[in-house]
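Researcher: Batch entry, complex prediction.
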Amino acid sequence: MHEVSAMAEIVVERASKSFGGKLAIDDVSLTVNDGEFLVLLGPSGCGKTTLLRAIAGLGMVDSGRVTIGGRDVTYLPAGDREISMVFQSYAIFPHMSVRGNIGFGLRMSKTPGDVIEERVEEAAALLHIEDLLDRKPSAMSGGQRQRVAVARALAMKAEVLLMDEPLSNLDALLRLEMRAELKRLLAEVNATTIYVTHDQIEALSMGDRVAVMREGVLQQVDRPSVVYDNPSNQFVGGFIGNPPMNFLDGVVKHAGGKVAVDLAGQAVTVGPSAPELDPYAGRAIRLGIRAENMETLATPAEDALRVRVDVVEPLGAQNLLTVTLRSDGPARHPMKVSTHPTFGAAAGQELWIRFPPEQIRWIDPQHRAGFALKALYLARYNPNPRLAEPTPATPRRFCKVRAAKAVRMPANHKP
Ligand SMILES: Nc1ncnc2c1ncn2[C@@H]1O[C@H](COP(=O)(O)OP(=O)(O)OP(=O)(O)O)[C@@H](O)[C@H]1O
Ligand SMILES: [Mg+2]
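Model: Structure tokens for the complex:
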């Protein structure tokens, strides 16, 4: 497929929309660069389809602005926006042949017949439905219909492609294959793409950047590795990753020239100093750590916490352990820990777990949204956070403003 040359940057500025008095999208600002593949991720009902429809022109925003390629399209009808969309509900014509469905948009835009034919075949081959071209969707499976919808959108070769859960009805193997093929194709076509999914693996593997949404509010927009490693708040850390990030509550202790966090009577030493924890001395802090970032030991060691193994789940490439921190009180602190499959562990056994300090993400438990201290710090003191560098746009601005506004920093906190 050939390259699209015109600029098709999508800019959403402070967009809000409510249904029956309830905000479906709440003051959303987002820039998708020309040719970028942005994945929109979030739980069911968080506003993903509403945002996509606002960009497509199928549901106007109540306030805010949408521009595509520098043109204000906020009030432009969908047909004039030169975008292509795959709907969550497919929206294909059941009694028109697959061939007719895929070529529909092209016929509407008066594309010459031979070009239509060529593009229909190309898109059908890509989605592995070339043998179904003369069938009617009414006589096809859900996954086959969904592929017709994706093929129709791709055949348009629009500069802007909006896809709402385009692979949700495919079996795991086909999904895996499509994921890679779509990624390759969209990089080739260079369309500006917003891709909605529930599937975090899809989000992390396909997106140039991932936008995480919750209850109509964007939580974080960044490269997949950043969203995974440095979630801006507890929601993002708990939503992305399988298993989600572990969170444990503790108390910051400064003693004997060391900074440590007391977790149910056991101490995690953070180091000789930890400036970001200074404001929390003697106070509650929440520790976040991913299952694969802990060291598991079969014997006691300095700085390793004693845990009991509750469940062992062999997953092939790794074993997933559910463990509970041995505590001096009634509180239970369950955690998920990944180990190499050859590491012997059985339910009921005791193990020791070490948290490498550089793998710990600190969360402010006092704050309702559970902001990560790093995000707080960047939001408050660094107008140009290093974490946002690799992409030229500045979509973090929205998160930053909200973080800075919403959070009261401890009085003795110094940058
Ligand atoms: N036409 C509508 N009328 C009333 N409420 C609506 C309408 N469309 C969406 N909503 C509500 O707006 C919120 C956001 O819905 P939306 O469809 O955008 O969610 P979503 O993130 O796409 O969810 P899913 O992952 O389940 O598709 C939900 O609370 C939903 O009930
Ligand atoms: Mg939806």
